[in-house]
Design goal:
Layout: E1 45-47, H1 53-64, E2 69-73, E3 77-81, H2 85-98, E4 103-105, E5 113-115, E6 143-145, H3 150-155, H4 157-161, H5 179-194, H6 201-214, H7 224-234, E7 236-240, H8 250-265, E8 274-282, E9 289-293, E10 307-315, E11 325-328, E12 345-348
Helix pairs in contact: 5-6
Length: 359
């Protein structure tokens, strides 16, 4: 398993046996036998084709200030045996600083592996987890030494293979305590999103508490931590609501601009061509963001009638702006009492949905 440090290999390699001794120790290179493992085992490090193995081994010795055991392997690779975990860390730092080609961390023959996967691709076959780790090409950062874990993986082979690989974040094979409540809440979220109703985090927690209590789970206590796990497990995220864009046909709009509008504008000068658009001011509005599923587009649906409609206009050159037109449902709103003048033109229409186009 490689650590990933790589540089262009040098054309010159050493093929002779190495030996280096610190001033107060005997030869520190074993040419043909493996080093004895200490009681607290420290994995050896194999450095691929160092440019100057003798100098590198000497530098290791000086940094650790103790006897260093090394072995020259076939292919001009240098195998170093750190005596302590601190020596091992120093070697790793030196390997990083020197930008050596690569290093290999080996495990004792009897030591087994626990496979920790930090994220699976969509096309990953979960049955591959039960194969021998050496055949999977795993990176060192994904394999953590731990005894008695591979038998556990093999024991749970059926659960792993039947696990839903479409899950957006399959890092752990966890069993949900409130699985039936999760299912009901997900159906509820789907129903609200089909109706374009905004959903907030506290709203989800409140509904989960209601459903959990109805199904006999009185011990459940909603929290922000639980909500984050629920969103991550089911691929739910917050998105900005895009008004009524769901009701607009993009093809019709594009065709009207390119074909019809261009014919209308060709007989008018830019200063005599105005663009007007309406917007709304909601005073009893719902949130502008909602929780929805990652792959789902977020639309707001129909807007509420509890609003003021405003029309703004300006000519193409930008030198002349129209006075804003505001439409409400009341002929004489209470907020206008005592007002001597307005900076806008105000009109009313009890059917506010008809807005400026029908005045």
């Amino acid at each position: 398993m490689r650590s990933g440090h790589e540089v262009a290999p040098s054309p010159t390699y050493l093929h002779e046996q190495l030996s280096y001794s610190s001033p107060s120790n005997d030869s520190n290179v074993i040419p043909d036998s493996s080093a004895k493992q200490s009681r607290n085992y420290v994995p050896p490090i194999v450095i691929d084709e160092p440019l100057d193995a003798t100098a590198l081994l000497k530098e290791f010795t000086e940094k650790c200030e103790s006897k260093i055991i090394g072995k020259l392997l076939p292919g001009s690779n240098l195998k170093v045996f750190p005596e302590t975990a601190e020596h091992h860390r120093k070697f790793q730092r030196l390997i990083t600083e020197e930008k050596l080609k690569s290093c290999t961390f080996e495990l004792p023959e009897q030591q087994q592996l626990k496979i920790v996967i930090s994220g699976l691709p969509a096309n990953f076959k979960v049955e591959e987890i039960t194969e021998e780790p050496k055949n999977l090409g795993l990176k060192p950062t994904l394999v953590i030494p731990m005894r008695h874990s591979l038998p556990t993986i093999i024991k749970n082979r059926d659960k792993i293979q039947n696990y839903d690989s479409s899950n957006s974040c399959p890092k752990h094979l966890n069993t949900c305590v409130f699985e039936d409540v999760d299912e009901v809440v997900l159906k509820w979220i789907h129903t609200l999103r089909d109706k374009n109703v905004p959903i907030s985090g506290p709203f989800i927690i409140e509904k989960f508490l209601q459903f959990a209590k109805a199904l006999g789970y009185d011990e459940f206590r909603g929290s922000n931590g639980w909500l984050e796990k629920f969103k991550k497990e089911h691929g739910i995220m917050a998105k900005e609501i895009s008004g009524e864009s769901k009701d607009v046909d993009d093809n019709d709009s594009e065709n009207w601009i390119t074909e019809t509008l261009s014919k209308i504008l060709k007989d008018y000068k830019p200063e005599n061509t105005f663009n007007a658009d309406e917007t709304t001011l909601f005073f009893q509005c719902l949130p502008q963001k909602t929780f929805t599923f990652k792959k789902e587009k977020c639309f707001g649906g129909k807007q509420s009638n509890a609003r003021l409609t405003v029309m703004l206009g300006v000519n193409v050159t930008g030198h002349q702006k129209l006075k804003p037109l505001v439409i409400g449902r009341s002929k004489n709103p209470r907020c206008f009492k005592g007002a001597k003048s307005l900076e806008v033109d105000y009109d009313f229409n009890k059917k506010i949905s008809d807005d400026v186009r029908n005045l």
